[in-house]
Amino acid sequence: MAKLYYTPREAAEILAISDDAVLDLINRGDLPALRLSPRITRIPMVAFDRWREGYRPRRRRVSIAPPPRHVEVGVDESLPVARDLVTR
Amino acid sequence: MIATGDALLTYVADLVWEIERFAVTVLPPNDSDEITLGREDDGALVIDLECRPPRSRRSADVHLGIFERWCPTGVDRYERVDYRFEIRHDELQYRRAFHRHHVERFLRAFDVATHEHCEATIGVVTCDHYFGEPVAHASEGFMRLYELWLSDEKPDCSVLPCLG
Questions:
Q1: What pTM does this model have?
Q2: B106, CA 20 to 30 Å: which among A5, A18, B77, B115?
């Protein structure tokens, strides 16, 4: 089992700031961390390292795909089979 | 859970931002600047993200999937009807999942709409469906799986109530 996270105290030591300052960064939503309980907070190492390097994700634009296109086929009509399409 | 189309776009943008903040990679086709929600024949909108937590060792990839289907319920209103949040850790050999699908069938059989899966060894199924509290939103589903990944331990499936 590998340890993949820092405690707030460990992060505080690395950053050379107080435990409270680390918790403040977490509470402000700046430093990524998981609050497992009121007393247990885990700071993922990789996310912490990237945060220290200045990484902040950019916010993505999100759109909705256009509706699927369908060909209306009448009662006595049919679509050509793939073989016919190839030979044309 | 009900949302307008615009609220749903914000919901997805927030989700992806949160995922990437935790150093998890969102794979193509949703890794570009713009993310597109799928749209099904019945007008349902689909969130379907395949993600990779950072590698913690020389391991095979860890697969983390997020899927939600939102059905139209009125003018510019969508309701989340299905979800699947899953993690598969190939090196530690576990699978964990939170599901909501085939709701009528599950309500009939088990009196609950949601269920979970837990395989401490992938492929070894000791219970087909475990009881699971509903996952309130995609960010919660992601966080619950991320927390498990972060522990770097197999889940203890034996503590979960088996529905059958």
A1: 0.89
A2: B77
